[in-house]
Amino acid sequence: MELQAVRIDKWLWAARFFKTRSLATDAVDGGKVQINGLRVKPAKDVKIGDRVELGIGDMHWELMVQGLSEKRGPAPEARKLYLETEASQARRAKQMDERQLRVEPSAEIHGRPTKRDRRSMDRWREG
């Protein structure tokens, strides 16, 4: 029996974008997922050929639904459920490169601040 449609929260979980179905549901409820350009609810059915836009943190995907599944399988099988657009792949690659080049703000801080550092920070906050 071939599936005709699957709930978007189940599909996102089966495609391994989220570890749990409840996280997928929260993302859909929070407006992080769109189907064919429209904000949807977790019970919305997704069909083969639909365009899904998904944002997790600062990463964004544009996907074309290639397959349907209600069960979570191994990662190679999950990748067969969707096809990422070339523009989305390029944008994510650029974001990953920028993330590697970005310096973490707390990289220069080592351990607790000294008494002198704390007084300097207090002066900076008050000033």
Q: Structural class, from helix and strand content? A: alpha+beta
Extended strand count = 7
Summed up, the helix count is: 5
Spatial extent as radius of gyration: 21 Å
CATH classification class of the domain at 1-88? Alpha Beta
Let me know the average pLDDT: 90
For the record, the CATH architecture of the domain at 1-88 stands as: Roll
Low-confidence stretches: none
Task: Supply the CATH superfamily name of the domain at 1-88.
Answer: RNA-binding S4 domain
Major sheet: arrangement of strands: 3-2-5-6-7
Largest sheet: 5 strands, antiparallel
Give me the CATH fold name of the domain at 1-88. Answer: Structural Genomics Hypothetical 15.5 Kd Protein In mrcA-pckA Intergenic Region, Chain A
What is the straight-line distance between the termini? Answer: 70 Å
Order of helices and strands: EHHEEEEEHEHH
* Portion in beta strands: 15-25%
Q: How helical, in percent, are the residues?
A: 25-40%
Shape: elongated
Structure, explained:
It is a single chain. Helices cover 39% and strands 20% of the residues. With 127 residues, it is α+β, with helices and mostly antiparallel strands. Strand 2 and strand 3 form a beta hairpin. Helix 1 (8-14) crosses helix 2. The radius of gyration is 21 Å and the shape is elongated. The N and C termini lie far apart (70 Å). The model has no long low-confidence stretch (mean pLDDT 90).
